[in-house]
Amino acid sequence: MSAGTALPTPHSEPSDISPISPDRGAIDLEPVVSVATRRRSVPRWLRRITGPLLLLVLWGVLSATGVLGSDILASPATIARTAWDLTSDGTLPSAMAVSLRRVAVGLVFGTVIGTALGLLSGLSRLGEDLIDATVQMLRAVPFVGMIPLFIIWLGIGETPKITLIALGVAFHLYLNVYAGIRGVDEQLIEAGTSLGLSRWGLIRHVLLPGALPGAMTGLRYALATAWLALVFGETVNADNGIGFLMDQAREFFRTDVIVVCLVVYAFLGLLADLIVRLLERLLLQWRPTFTGK
């Protein structure tokens, strides 16, 4: 290569490629929008109530056209008037207060008993040997079938109703707390032991946090069971409460009153589930989970 030959520089352009001239026109770029982002354009609360609203509209249409007779199921307008009348004269608020008190007391007793038994059985092999077989045997018996015995043993007052609720709640809490403790990864236990944690330290920092998600799941099931037990308890030898209203309405074929009571049960259960969800967000902030796409 002679001294007069020019060497190509790293920034030199090939002779056959020319830069884009302004007169060729600019390329319009559109941002890529994911499917999940498009779905968020519709508020989630609106999507969640779409199904119930469609069901309500279908119900109203069937009632208005006579396909669904009033002797089978009252129309939504009739049920709305009945709900207003029961609320205005104080019948429904009084019944709700009585039912809420029963559920609250039974839930407290059942949660304490079920959680305590689950901890004793999950944390100790001796506790498992003494407790688990008995609880599993009692769990196989439908707790609703215990109503006649509860009436004989405890009378017809508040005690058998609260006991029935507490029994249904305790089984769910026991099973989920026990399974949550026994489901903790063994490697976490070994890591805690290698870091010098005592037995109480392992329980406090490893086992209990690991069992907390299962306990929250058990609480959600327990709340649903509590309302179910309340329905059975209040329709047997009760003189107040939402179940008592339903039992009276059944004798007079008042489907509107029955549906109002069922709607109240549904909303109270939904409210209880919402409270548990808030507790999960508060207590389980350390555990990110998949929330759907």
UniProtKB/TrEMBL annotation:
Residues 96-276 form the ABC transmembrane type-1 domain. The keyword Iron-sulfur does not apply. It is found in: Cell membrane. It comes from the Bacteria. Keywords: Cell membrane, Membrane, Transmembrane, Transmembrane helix, Transport. The chain crosses the membrane at residues 49-68, 103-126, 138-156, 162-181, 257-279. It is a multi-pass membrane protein. The keyword Glycoprotein does not apply. Residues 1-22 are annotated as: Disordered. CDD domains: TM_PBP2. PROSITE patterns: ABC_TM1. InterPro entries: MetI-like, MetI-like_sf. Belongs to the binding-protein-dependent transport system permease family. PANTHER family: ALIPHATIC SULFONATES TRANSPORT PERMEASE PROTEIN SSUC-RELATED, ALKANE SULFONATE ABC TRANSPORTER-RELATED, MEMBRANE SUBUNIT. This is ABC transporter permease.
